[in-house]
Design a protein that fits this description.
- This protein is mainly beta and about 100 residues long.
- It has one domain (about 1-100).
- It contains 1 helix and 7 strands.
- The protein has one helix at about 30-35, and strands spanning about 1-5, 15, 25-30, 50-60, 75-85, 90, 95-100.
- Strands 1, 2, 3, 4, 5, 6 and 7 form a 7-stranded mixed sheet that branches.
- Strand 5 (about 75-85) and strand 6 form a beta hairpin.
- The longest helix is centred in the first third of the chain and has 7 residues, at about 30-35.
- The protein is globular, with a radius of gyration of 14 Å.
């Protein structure tokens, strides 16, 4: 992902899916992501996170990790998350689920 743009600004490329996260939301990894990432030490202690920032990220890869021409890039909602273990990650919205929304 490259070229982060504030979520309040127009998306720079066609939108892959609509944003659903807001600053202050409490989130966790989806079950599929937790199973997939559980083997990686980095993700073992990440149970819940607070959304600190939401932005459009430019997605420059396609199926099976192929790199796309810039004309084919998509804008995807992403967030900076503060996890319960004190670390932050830059994470695509589609790998987390909202536990408690701050609206």
């Amino acid at each position: 992902m490259r070229e982060n743009t504030p979520i309040t600004s127009p998306a720079p490329y066609s939108i892959a899916f609509e944003p659903t996260l807001s600053v202050g939301d409490l989130v966790t990894l989806t079950s599929a992501q937790r199973s997939h990432r559980q083997s990686a030490q980095l993700w073992r202690n990440k149970n819940v996170a607070v959304v600190q920032e939401v932005f459009w990220a430019a997605c420059d890869w396609g199926e099976e990790g192929t790199i796309l021409d810039k004309d084919d890039w998509k804008s995807v909602p992403a967030a900076i998350l503060l996890w319960n273990d004190g670390e932050t990650t830059n994470t695509s919205q589609n790998v987390v689920k909202v536990l408690s929304a701050r609206r």
